[in-house]
Amino acid sequence: MNYRFIQVQSLTPLIGAEVSGVDLCAPLSDAVFAEIHQAWMDHLVLFFRDQPMSSAQHLAFGQRFGELHIHPAAPYVQDNPALMQIHTDKDSFRNNGEGWHSDVSADAEPPMASILHLHQTPSHGGDTLWANMYEAYATLSTPIQKLLADLSAVHVADYSGFYGAHAPQRENPSAVHPVVRTHPVTGRKALFVNSGFTQRIKGLQRDESDGILALLFAHIKNPNFHCRFQWRPDSVALWDNRCTQHMAVWDYFPQTRHGIRVTIKGDRPV
Ligand code: SIN
Questions:
Q1: Which of 177, 175, 176, 173 is CA-nearest to residue 158?
Q2: 129, 187, 228, 235: least CB-packed within 10 angstroms?
């Protein structure tokens, strides 16, 4: 794909690209935004380096994609629940997003996109991995694809104890979503179960559901579907929760990793 206004360098053949020639601290023209959106659809996750965005600029970039999503329970900064805090340090007992997941998939309308801006990174480590769920679906054998076609799964969030003394924004959500969803923009099919939130497949016996979910959770761990991003201060990642999952590696204890995530509302998976 040729772009007129931005440069796009793939990280892997299947997922992830670094975008340059863009200043996210300034308002984006419609033409530049359209190219970023196209590159995002093509590569699923985009990375931008050296973007010292203010919170207002971060929110403005998020609002180009749609209405902002409020996390059910995570702490936020500047009294604005749309500015989710991502913070791990020597006193942390857990790391946000350390297992494979699609953000808040337990919402009835899970977020379509997340934009993470890291301000402080450890001296090394603290990478994030993303997995391509189109590819995860496409590489299943036809009999398994047929089995999944009519199945839906229960997604449950339980944030109790996750965020210390921080009072949740709303009740823990839960929802039923198709196991395979169709991306509303690309029309491609993507596997939509994740070990962070998906608890069981509806209509199956417990052992059947556990067995199929274990198979799918193991399948998405195939590194052929993955990219891995090494953060630096003022790196930004934009990912599509409709066709990717991600996990944040916590290999840098006791160092600090800090940033802000802005998340964009999505629609009901079909
Ligand atoms: C998340 O949004 O799940 C956290 C990702 C990260 O910290 O890299």
A1: 173
A2: 187
Q: The domain at 7-264 falls in which architecture? A: 4-Layer Sandwich (3.60)
**Span 52-103, pLDDT tens digits:** 999 999 999 999 999 999 999 999 999 999 999 999 999 999 999 999 999 9
- Listing DSSP states for 84-136 in one string gives EEEEE-TT-SS-TT-SSB-TTTTSSS--SEEEEEEEE--SS---EEEEEHHHH
Say how far apart CA 145 and CA 134 lie, in whole Å: 12
State how far the Cα of 16 lies from the Cα of 18, in Å rounded to an integer: 7
State the DSSP code for 54: -
pLDDT tens digits, residue range 122-166? 999 999 999 999 999 999 999 999 999 999 999 999 998 889 889
Both structure tokens of 200? 């069981």
> Among 158, 151, 153, which Cα is nearest to 194's?
153
Q: Tokens 């679906």, residue? A: 137
- Residue 2 pLDDT exceeds 90: no
Cβ of 248 less than 6 Å from ligand 1: yes
For ligand 1, is residue 261 a contact (CB within 6 Å)? yes
Distance 4 CA to ligand 1 centre (A): 31
Query: Is 246 annotated as catalytic?
Result: yes
